[in-house]
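Need tokens for this chain, all 158 residues.
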Amino acid sequence: MDGQQVSFDLLGHCADRYGVSLTAAALRWTEIAPKRAILVASRDDHMLWAKSNKAALKSGAYFATRKNTIELPHDALAHSYNAFGMADSQTGRAQSWFAREPASMPVTEMTRVAGQYDYTLILLLLPEAEWQGARHDDEEPEEDTYDRFIRNGQYPVR
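Here are the structure tokens for all 158 residues:
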């Protein structure tokens, strides 16, 4: 997929190629996306679940769907208010999805109805965050558990 514009058509091609569902292909792509990406499944104008990649999580672009019932923004392509629109992709303001994003931050929203599962997939793509946590050149980089295992010579078994 290097160099190609991501779309549900491209993800569908990958799903067919590897014999997986569109949802599985989209979830996998979200993990390896070069920038912030969030995959949302919705039904009846509410989120069923959402998965953010690491870059999106670090910037605060995620949805806590396990603890809350979250309604889609009214200007979302997948919202029933926009049911008559024929577009399956649009660029809008990230603030309609994430209140903490700067007013000038765009979001690309793509939708695909997964008819056999009775939900709609929404892929949200955000550019890199304009704001990051405070960083100082003299600080040590933060180490997670995985990095600690690797540093100590404990490699994963696959």
